[in-house]
Amino acid sequence: GAVVSQHPSWVICKSGTSVKIECRSLDFQATTMFWYRQFPKQSLMLMATSNEGSKATYEQGVEKDKFLINHASLTLSTLTVTSAHPEDSSFYICSAWDVISYEQYFGPGTRLTVT
Amino acid sequence: GENVEQHPSTLSVQEGDSAVIKCTYSDSASNYFPWYKQELGKGPQLIIDIRSNVGEKKDQRIAVTLNKTAKHFSLHITETQPEDSAVYFCAASPNSGYALNFGKGTSLLVTP
């Protein structure tokens, strides 16, 4: 199957700093990517839908000024957590939709810890 | 919006037995129902999916059934092995290009 990568796989940052997470589709083009957040022992919750070349669509309750999403190319979407706080510590997972196979593929996730 | 309920939350079976996980959904517009396996610290891995134009799909030891009238779908794993131990999530959406609505997950433990 198609591969989606995320970088970094884990990151520790101090409260108040910003962190950027990359999501790449390695062998297919993705016009649409999704960002999910998963707290320990919980399910995946959609944060936003990222469409190449346009603004992301955020779910209710997700602050767009805090979680900046940029989908500048057909293979890369980035999520920047600005002014991170300890409550932002979570597992962030992206997925990308392959228009050829009609499948949605998930990345391996990024563990963010804010101290 | 779509609401996906998943049961049971935990399931323990002996190696070789079958495991069944059930999900229900609320939105009749949902037509795509994937199942994911997630191991600790890793992203979800698609194991099987079914679209609304079929009622059953099978891939080796894994099968999924769908009842659109009743709005429920199930995952069946036969001849379970210890490496099947993981958290399994069901999901639903209008099609694979839409964001997925996930169930709360089932922690499956297969004991030797």
What does this 3D model show about the protein?
The complex is a heterodimer of chains A (115) and B (112). Chain A has strands at 4-7, 10-13, 19-25, 32-38, 44-51, 57-58, 67-73, 76-81, 90-98, 103-106, 110-114. Chain A is built from no helices and eleven strands. In chain A, the strands form two sheets. In chain A, strands 2, 4, 5, 6, 9, 10 and 11 form a seven-stranded mixed beta sheet that branches. Chain A has a four-stranded antiparallel beta sheet with strand order 1-3-8-7, with no helix packed on it. By secondary structure, chain A is mainly beta. In chain A, 0% of the residues lie in helices and 55% in strands. By secondary structure, chain B is mainly β. Chain B is 0% helix and 54% strand. In chain B, strands 2, 4, 5, 9, 10 and 11 form a six-stranded mixed beta sheet that branches. A five-stranded antiparallel beta sheet of chain B has the order 1-3-8-7-6, with no helix packed on it. The N and C termini of chain B lie far apart (41 Å). Chain A binds chain B through residues 1, 6, 32, 34, 42-46, 49, 93, 95, 97, 99, 102-109, 111, and chain B through 34, 36, 41-46, 49, 89, 95-97, 99-105.
Topology readout:
The complex is a heterodimer of chains A (115) and B (112).
Chain A: E1 4-7, E2 10-13, E3 19-25, E4 32-38, E5 44-51, E6 57-58, E7 67-73, E8 76-81, E9 90-98, E10 103-106, E11 110-114
Parallel strand pairs in A: 2-11
Antiparallel strand pairs in A: 1-3, 3-8, 4-5, 4-9, 5-6, 7-8, 9-10, 9-11
Chain B: E1 4-7, E2 10-14, E3 19-25, E4 32-38, E5 45-51, E6 56-59, E7 62-67, E8 72-77, E9 86-92, E10 101-102, E11 106-111
Parallel strand pairs in B: 2-11
Antiparallel strand pairs in B: 1-3, 3-8, 4-5, 4-9, 6-7, 7-8, 9-10, 9-11
